[in-house]
From TrEMBL:
Belongs to the CobD/CbiB family. It is a multi-pass membrane protein. It comes from Stutzerimonas nitrititolerans. Converts cobyric acid to cobinamide by the addition of aminopropanol on the F carboxylic group. Pfam families: CobD_Cbib. The lineage of its organism: Bacteria, Pseudomonadati, Pseudomonadota, Gammaproteobacteria, Pseudomonadales. The keyword Calcium does not apply. The gene is cobD. This is Cobalamin biosynthesis protein CobD. Pathway: Cofactor biosynthesis; adenosylcobalamin biosynthesis. Signal peptide: none annotated. It is found in: Cell membrane.
């Protein structure tokens, strides 16, 4: 029961306070990761996967161990765990990034919508039409909901403070190093593979959650038929099930770092609009509510 209450407290803190505006720990971690990458992945060292493994271990393992030690402190270990969960969650910030895009689209301000969505996706947004902006934002809601919210809760439940720190730092390194280009193809291999492994079970639980809270049969059909064609083993199920649950079509062509990527379609229905961004965010919030209720019931029964 204490675990369920800790999850509830962490989500409540995130909903009330949002992410820290100053000195966010993940920002400091990003600077550390940049220094490690420059040291271990200089032009003369590229091509060595072992350097990426070493850098990952130096970035993640000491901080994970520190989180474990702090969680054992008598009297305040439980508070440390709640604070670390709060710092790792990104539920409120997800809405703070997505809703301005939806508002700009509703007002017909396409340049502002493009600018706003450019903050949250890595693709080129300068030429997107309204449907393209809505599609990119809806995809971000579903995928980042899985990574920054549900998977964070999953690893907190599985392994407490060290689990949530291990996952969140690994996910951050994947976002920084997990590119398939000349610079990161080999150095970022370990970060990408570890993140894939840590997200494998959470992503499928998220896909099931999205399906149960939307158009269930359609979502399950899209998950089964479309997810295997997606290049990410975890984003595929999440986005296919989410698109099916919402009754929209995601995927399609997108420009990343100057290169056109032809992505398979996901979901069924119409292209997304501004309202579908809000519906996707509601789907994430509803899913979090379901997870918390399940945890509370499970804790009560166990107690």
């Amino acid at each position: 029961m204490s675990l369920a209450l800790s999850c509830l407290a962490g989500v409540a803190l995130d909903a009330l306070l949002g992410e820290p505006k100053r000195a966010h720990p993940l920002v400091a971690f990003g600077r550390l990761a940049d220094r490690l990458e420059r040291h271990f992945n200089g032009p003369e060292a590229r091509g060595w996967r072992s350097h990426g493994v070493t850098a990952w271990c130096l970035a993640v393992l000491p901080l994970t161990g520190l989180a474990w030690l702090l969680s054992l402190l008598p009297g305040i270990g439980w508070l440390v765990e709640i604070v670390l969960l709060y710092l790792a969650l990104g539920l409120r910030s997800l809405g703070e990034h997505l809703l301005p895009v939806a508002r700009a689209l509703r007002l017909g301000d396409l340049p502002e919508a493009r600018r706003r969505v450019g903050y949250i996706v890595s693709r080129d947004t300068s030429t997107l039409d309204e449907a393209g902006v809505a599609r990119a934002t809806t995809e971000s809601a579903l995928e980042n909901g899985s990574d920054a919210v549900f998977a964070t809760l999953f690893w907190f439940v599985i392994a407490g403070a060290p689990g949530v720190v291990l996952y969140r730092l690994s996910n951050t390194l994947d976002a920084m190093w997990g590119y398939r280009n000349e610079r990161f193809e080999r150095f970022g291999w370990a970060a990408a593979r570890i993140d894939d492994a840590l997200n494998y079970l959470p992503a499928r639980l998220v896909a099931l959650t999205y399906a149960l809270l939307g158009r269930t049969r359609q979502a399950l059909r899209c998950w089964r038929a479309q997810a295997p064609s997606w290049d990410s083993p975890n984003a595929g199920p999440v986005m296919a099930a989410g698109a099916g649950a919402l009754g929209v079509v995601l995927g399609g062509p997108a420009i990343y770092h100057g290169e056109l990527h032809t992505r398979p379609p996901l979901g069924e229905g119409e292209p997304p609009r501004a309202g579908d961004i809000e519906r996707a965010l509601d789907l994430v919030w509803s899913g979090v509510g379901v997870w918390l209720v399940v945890l509370l019931i499970g804790g009560w029964l166990h107690a």
